Amino acid sequence: MGEVRFGVHDVAGIRFAVSPLWETVAAFRATADPGRHAVHLPWIKSVAPLREDRSLAGRIAPLRAAAASPGFTTPPPRCPLAEFEEELAPMGAAPELAGGLRSWWEAAVRPYWPRIRAVLEADIGYRTRQLAEDGIQEVFARLHPSLHWTGDRLVSADLPPAGPDLGGTGIVLAPSAFAARCHLLAGTGTAPPALVYPSRAVGGLWERRGTRADGLARLLGRSRARLLALTGSPSTTTQLAAVSGLSLGAVSQHLSVLRDAGLVTGHRYRREVHYTATELGTALLERS
């Protein structure tokens, strides 16, 4: 049984992040053990040929060797919505491995990343609301069945026996679509450690949505229905305007209505606001 010890400042330093680099490694491992990742079988079947593709096999060989080691992991994410290349940069000292990671990301993960990221950000949205309403103890209580909050410690069989004392650095909580259990990523330099945990709502990740969207269009109007569908992955007002052909003003008006109805939510990242369908909005899309 392992644990992570929290101080007063550590509780205040808890934050959430998404790690495309971690997901890339975890996705590769999932293809090697489909039986433990049945929920991902549709994706695994679609990318399985890539592992044997001659042109790709040589480039991902360093990743194959590294992923076979149980002790291999990735650095903890440094910012909430890091890009893949940002996370890969610290691994520049291992160029062959970095090249293998990049090749697998481009071929097997990046084409599906908007869908994966939307699930992870929906999980973060749920946890942050829970944190605001019920406090951190309730967040940990529902994060994963293996985790238990006892006094000032987070205890789990998935944590290392000699768990760290955070010492005021806080901790990053990172949902994962491909994680089957919790993992602790050791802090590096000024970056605090990260606790990777299985995300909510992964069961519907690879489900195909129905094509009968007329009912939703009649309910919301075609422009709002289309914008709601486009927010399946986080998008800015400018991006939505470019894809939909609507003016920036029209997109802003429609997003305001969808937000007031609880169908989309906006998260500021740096200088942009990224809009994402909420659980209610996603459920409405899936039933349309």
TrEMBL record:
Keyword match Transcription regulation: yes
UniProt KW DNA-binding keyword: yes
UniProt cross-references to PANTHER family, sorted A to Z: ARSENICAL RESISTANCE OPERON REPRESSOR ARSR-RELATED, HTH-TYPE TRANSCRIPTIONAL REPRESSOR CZRA
Originating species: Streptomyces katrae
Keywords: DNA-binding, Transcription, Transcription regulation
Name the UniProt record assigns to this protein: Winged helix-turn-helix domain-containing protein
HTH arsR-type domain ranges (all copies): 215-286
Coiled coil ranges: none
